[in-house]
Write a structure and sequence with these properties.
The structure is a homodimer.
Chain A lengths: L2 E3 L2 E3 L21 H13 L3 H13 L2 E2 L4 H4 L3 H13 L3 E6 L2 E6 L3 H9 L8
Antiparallel strand pairs in A: 1-2, 3-5, 4-5
Chain A binds a DNA duplex through helix 4.
Chain lengths: ~120, ~120
DNA sequence: CAGTGACATCGATATTGGTCAATGTGAAGC
DNA sequence: GCTTCACATTGACCAATATCGATGTCACTG
């Protein structure tokens, strides 16, 4: 009925006690300051408008701010606001050429963040 | 001085015009409703407290809510609020056993989201 | 050098969201 | 059945932020 593993009793009818000494409690996990910086990266992608902008940049390789307003359907100041946020998060980099600002994806930024999370494995394919 | 590629002029001194016909404009990118759902997933990880909780769950495999308050340093309602958000985003799943709720990571949820983004390549090693 | 176009910044507003005290709910234990 | 415990829910408060009109800045154009 009761199974014993490593000195800990496991019973099918009784729920185990988190504090029975058999559950070591939380270990590992991200240190607070690391969590802050990582969360900022994810928060930058946590807005639908920014996510669309980012995906358009990923798809196009390089794109001008003036080509974002239309597809995204937001005003110019709003687009500017969101590109700034993405750049601040280190996800994209901008280059001013003449009157236009061209945006590219910062290579490796997102994979780095995911690796820091200690995910078992990222996408196959 | 001027280079011609595919019928488009590229000049080192003059910045190119986004609307010269050589830049096709934005193509692809996430459809709005897909962006909404994806952004929700990222937004769930966009808070330092939730990110710490999620990383603790990833590290521990399974963890009780009562073991989160301490390391995270937030009140019980706040912890409950954040675990709800993570569960709502489909990143973790909870199981009630007796008085305690045990949380596990929903396998594959995050990689799916990243694949939808069409990232060039996920983390190497 | 005056005009125009692209983008950034500012100011204001409305909404969202994180936090906690207080309270509710449901399961164990006596 | 009463008490206790773990967790969820509610309500309120405050901070952060998404949005846009108005304005500023800077590069090119004529």
């Amino acid at each position: 009925m009761a199974r014993w593993i490593d000195g800990c009793q496991y019973n099918d009818t009784m729920p185990e006690d988190p504090d029975d000494g058999c559950h070591p409690g939380p270990t590992g996990g991200l240190p607070p300051e690391r969590a802050d910086s990582l969360a900022a990266t994810f928060a930058a992608l946590g807005d639908p408008v920014r996510l669309r902008i980012y995906s358009l940049i990923l798809a196009g390789g390089e794109i001008c701010s003036c080509h974002l307003e239309g597809p995204v359907g937001k005003s110019q100041p709003t687009i500017s606001h969101h590109t700034s946020k993405l750049a601040e998060a280190g996800l994209i980099v901008g280059e001013k050429r003449g009157r236009w600002t061209w945006w590219r994806a910062a290579p490796g930024r997102l994979p780095e963040s995911l690796a820091a999370l200690g995910l078992p494995r990222a996408t196959g394919r």
